[in-house]
Amino acid sequence: MIPNDKITLSAEQLVSFNKMLDMFDDNDDVQEVYHNVDLPEEDDED
What we know:
Elements: H1 11-26
Protein backbone atom coordinates (compact mmCIF):
# COMPACT_ATOMS: atom_id res chain seq x y z
CA MET A 1 0.00 0.00 0.00
CA ILE A 2 1.43 3.33 -1.05
CA PRO A 3 -0.18 6.47 0.39
CA ASN A 4 -1.16 9.32 -1.88
CA ASP A 5 -0.09 11.91 0.68
CA LYS A 6 2.80 11.68 3.11
CA ILE A 7 3.28 13.77 6.23
CA THR A 8 6.48 15.11 7.74
CA LEU A 9 6.88 15.06 11.51
CA SER A 10 8.85 17.39 13.73
CA ALA A 11 11.87 15.96 15.54
CA GLU A 12 9.88 15.52 18.76
CA GLN A 13 6.98 13.85 16.95
CA LEU A 14 9.41 11.59 15.08
CA VAL A 15 10.89 10.32 18.36
CA SER A 16 7.40 9.47 19.65
CA PHE A 17 6.44 7.87 16.34
CA ASN A 18 9.55 5.67 16.35
CA LYS A 19 8.80 4.59 19.93
CA MET A 20 5.29 3.64 18.85
CA LEU A 21 6.64 1.62 15.90
CA ASP A 22 9.03 -0.19 18.28
CA MET A 23 6.13 -1.02 20.60
CA PHE A 24 4.15 -2.42 17.66
CA ASP A 25 7.20 -4.45 16.63
CA ASP A 26 7.49 -5.92 20.14
CA ASN A 27 3.81 -6.93 20.21
CA ASP A 28 3.34 -10.44 18.80
CA ASP A 29 -0.31 -9.73 17.94
CA VAL A 30 0.62 -6.98 15.46
CA GLN A 31 1.45 -8.45 12.08
CA GLU A 32 1.65 -5.40 9.80
CA VAL A 33 1.77 -1.64 10.30
CA TYR A 34 0.99 0.91 7.60
CA HIS A 35 1.65 4.64 7.89
CA ASN A 36 2.00 7.71 5.74
CA VAL A 37 4.91 9.32 7.58
CA ASP A 38 7.82 10.44 5.43
CA LEU A 39 10.66 8.85 7.42
CA PRO A 40 14.16 10.24 6.99
CA GLU A 41 16.57 7.74 5.51
CA GLU A 42 19.13 6.39 7.95
CA ASP A 43 22.75 6.27 6.85
CA ASP A 44 24.26 2.87 7.58
CA GLU A 45 27.94 3.35 8.30
CA ASP A 46 29.92 0.12 8.48
